[in-house]
Design a protein that fits this description.
Distance between the termini: 50 Å
Largest sheet: 9 strands, mixed
Radius of gyration: 23 Å
Bound molecules: ligand LLP
Number of strands: 20
Helix content: 25-40%
Structural class: alpha/beta
CATH topology of the largest domain: TIM Barrel
CATH superfamily of the largest domain: Alanine racemase
Number of helices: 12
Shape: globular
Strand content: 15-25%
CATH class of the largest domain: Alpha Beta
CATH architecture of the largest domain: Alpha-Beta Barrel
């Protein structure tokens, strides 16, 4: 199990009792005190990752903004940390904008995204003076035209383009191909620029693309950059578009399992920045400001999820299931994307492996499997499992199936613990029902 430790948050170690430790806190004690399932974020790891992004891109390119894609996990306490570390924020809904507001996040550093923004959401974005709206479609342009006319606001926008690039990731997280609900469709890209440039209340400061998520290659980014710079030159000639800002989205892959390493941030930074510098030279463009929008890669590794093992069911000659007290309701990624995860036995880190076991959840679905056939010590009821890479897209995609109470979330640092989201209760579950 010790060989899996590099998949865990930066400060993870094993203490003398053989317990897993994070941020100076014994996970067995944390499970005892806060209950399970429990999501634990490592503050040092989070801050370190923010700095890595800013440094790796910043040292290779003159002007860079790192925007945290808050869909990966929108939490006010974490957003304060991102602000302190100099990051901006990507929000895609009234709710995500509202969380940013509640964190006191500077709205001029917020990029408002979404493929079907409502009138009310656009009104809010204008009222709260978000830094950029990333326009996705013609209807949105129409709405923004009316709203800016009515309010007299002049709003900076980017236009989201579909570059027609396949990032070779799961179909559900591939967004930049021709057949995509996101962005202006390829055949209409020129009309989008022509139309947007005519809206008096909008200031088109640049272009955006986001080709997908959990991407392990850099070629798709380079291809998309080539596409967008060529397009930008044409649009400058035809409609006077000045590419002052280029937003290349997020999508950087992370390592969830030992057998699937991801390139380091420095590699993505090198390939992306050099592709822009090369392309701008070729097309005689001034270097635009570069904006990147990491979500997963900013937070995934800095959290682990603790579960308690309940029933261990051995089906002779078939399989052993160890059911934990969470599962698909707090982490739907394995069920939805076939995501692979790794786990360790937090209370017996030095125990010997005994064989394969399947980690199942407690929900009424056969697809409720967190990890299939992982090699582990023999599990017994009461064991504490720690799943790695739990920081992104687990909590925000969690649900109340079987009236599950969504887990508590804590932040640890130097032996200190802060609850950043309390566990739900029956009251939370029944609050919206009307008798
Ligand atoms: N920018 C835009 C416009 C996005 O739509 C996304 C993610 C990001 C940035 C951040 O991408 P990241 O760096 O996190 O890959 N639930 C899925 C992933 C959905 C990604 C949605 N958009 C999963 O668990 O794999």
């Amino acid at each position: 199990m010790l060989k899996r430790l590099p998949l865990y948050p930066l400060t993870t170690e094993v203490n003398r009792e053989g317990h897993l430790v994070i941020g100076g806190c014994d996970t067995v004690e944390l499970a005892d005190e806060f209950g399970t399932p429990l999501y634990i974020f490592d503050e040092a790891g989070l801050r370190n990752k923010c700095r890595e992004f800013r440094e790796e891109f910043g040292k290779r390119y003159p002007e860079v903004s790192v925007i945290y894609a808050s869909k990966a996990y929108a939490n006010a306490a974490l957003e304060r940390i991102f602000n302190e570390e100099g990051l901006g924020l990507d929000a895609v809904s009234e709710g995500e904008l509202g969380i940013a507001m509640s964190a006191g996040f500077p709205m001029e550093k917020v990029y408002f995204h979404g493929n079907n923004k409502s009138q009310r959401e656009l009104e809010l974005a204008l009222k709260w003076h978000v830094g950029r709206i990333v326009v996705d479609n013609f209807r949105e342009l129409d709405m923004l035209e009316k709203l800016t006319e009515a309010t007299g606001v002049k709003q900076d926008v980017l236009l989201r383009m579909t570059p027609g690039v396949d990032p070779h990731t799961h179909q559900y997280t591939s967004t930049g191909t021709l057949d995509s609900k996101f962005g202006f469709p390829l055949p209409l890209k020129e009309r989008a620029v022509e139309r947007a440039m005519k809206v008096r209340g909008l200031n088109v400061v640049g272009l955006h693309f986001h080709i997908g998520s959990l991407i392990y290659e850099t070629e798709p980014y380079e291809e998309a950059i080539g596409f967008i710079l060529k397009f930008a030159v044409e649009m400058r000639k035809k409609y006077g578009l000045e590419l002052r800002e280029l937003n290349t989205g997020g999508g950087f892959g992370v390592q969830y399992t030992l057998d699937k390493p991801a390139p380091p941030i420095s590699f993505f930074a090198e390939k992306i920045t050099s592709a822009i510098i090369r392309g701008c030279k070729k097309y005689k463009l001034e270097l635009p400001k570069l904006v990147i929008e990491p979500g997963r890669s900013a937070v995934a590794k800095s959290a682990m999820a603790l579960y308690a093992v309940g029933v261990v069911k051995e089906i002779p000659g078939v399989r052993t299931y160890a059911s934990v007290d969470g599962g698909m309701a707090d982490n739907i990624r394995p069920a939805l994307y076939g995501a692979k995860l790794e786990a360790v036995l937090a209370n017996r880190m030095r125990a010997r492996d005994a064989g394969k076991v399947t980690i199942s959840g407690k929900f009424c679905e056969m697809g409720d499997i967190l990890i299939r056939d992982i090699v582990m010590p023999k599990l017994v009821s009461g064991d504490i499992l720690a799943v790695a890479g739990a920081g992104a897209y687990s909590l925000p995609e969690s649900m109340n199936y079987n009236a599950f109470y969504k887990p508590a979330v804590i932040l640890v640092k130097d032996g200190r613990v802060r609850t950043i989201r309390r566990r739900e209760t029956l009251e939370d579950i029944t609050r919206c029902d009307i008798l």
